[in-house]
Amino acid sequence: MVIWKSGVVIITGASRGIGAACARLAARENWSVCVNYTSNADAAQAVVEDVEAAGAKAIAVQADVSKEDDVLRLFKVTADALGPVTALVNNAGILENQMKLEAMSAERFARVFSVNAIGALLCAREAVRVMGKSHGGQGGVIVNVSSAASRLGSPNEYIDYAASKGAVDTLTIGLAKEVGGDGIRVNAVRPGLILTDIHASSGEPGRAERLAPQVPAGRPGTAEEVAETIVWLMSEKASYVNGALLDVSGGR
Ligand code: NAP
């Protein structure tokens, strides 16, 4: 039997939604948790308090994942406070108002890709630098939060967002092969319609409910259902899962 000691996880975008659910669940599995956020300090602090109430250690760290200096600080502050980082959940993500591609601005493309794609690349790079055995680390796990949008394409809504998640899928496939021999597993989850605040950013807070009839499961999913899959991928129970793109979408 493999005995797995949970370590230190950085969860980007953990003040709300899927990231917050991951933080709460990881705490129950004895992970020490860095709750990253960009602007909502009160929400991040509430997640920290939930993690501590579960008996685990937690800190909240403000950092914009699209900024390299912020990402470097995020990893350093976490290691100083909680110990060597052994897992990253690359979860922070944004989308903007629903529209056709023909109406989107170049500035919007840059905003969406800088958080969803470049942010994921920067955080993954730092995780490899601290966790890789060839760098003196103890190995670890990266879970990228992609989206079913990467295979559905999100026509008439946000093709830019879908394309940025395609980049996350490709990052997952390549990095899993690149660092598998360095003691790091890299996988992605692709959530479908999940009940979080993100749909309000699209201009349609009730989007998940509207599209629920398209889901074979007949309903939107919850952040907790996605978190269960992410925390499982973080664990030694998923020791032979590497390079997988795992749909958590109720069959949609
Ligand atoms: P959410 O409820 O809107 O929460 C977004 C989180 O990301 C917040 O904690 C926010 O921090 C943080 N964040 C935003 N920009 C950031 C930045 N530049 N740097 C650091 N943190 C940042 O989103 P969610 O629905 O939980 O989505 C989480 C992930 O799942 C995203 O990658 C999203 O694309 C993906 N996903 C979601 C769904 C869905 O239906 N909900 C489906 C597929 C994929 P603040 O609180 O400080 O603003």
Question: How would you describe the overall organization of this protein?
Answer:
It is globular, with a radius of gyration of 17 Å. Strands 3-2-1-4-5-6-7 form a 7-stranded parallel β-sheet, sandwiched between helices. The protein has one domain: NAD(P)-binding Rossmann-like Domain (Rossmann fold, 3-Layer(aba) Sandwich), CATH 3.40.50.720. The chain is built from 9 helices and 7 strands, in the order βαβαβαβαβααβαααβ. The chain starts with 7 loop residues before the first strand and ends with a strand. Strand 2, helix 2 and strand 3 form a beta-alpha-beta unit. With 252 residues, it is of the alpha/beta class. The model has no long low-confidence stretch (mean pLDDT 97). Helix 1 crosses helix 9, helix 3 packs parallel to helix 4 and helix 4 runs parallel beside helix 6. The structure holds NADP nicotinamide-adenine-dinucleotide phosphate.
Walk me through the topology.
Blueprint: E1 8-11, H1 17-28, E2 32-37, H2 41-53, E3 58-62, H3 68-82, E4 87-90, H4 106-131, E5 140-145, H5 149-152, H6 159-179, E6 184-191, H7 198-201, H8 207-211, H9 223-234, E7 245-248
Parallel strand pairs: 1-2, 1-4, 2-3, 4-5, 5-6, 6-7
Helix pairs in contact: 1-2, 1-9, 3-4, 4-6
The structure holds NADP nicotinamide-adenine-dinucleotide phosphate (NAP).
The site of NADP nicotinamide-adenine-dinucleotide phosphate (NAP) has 31 residues, from helix 1, strand 2 and helix 4.
Search tags:
252 residues; 9 helices; Rossmann fold; alpha/beta; 7 strands; 15% strand; seven-stranded parallel β-sheet; binds NADP nicotinamide-adenine-dinucleotide phosphate
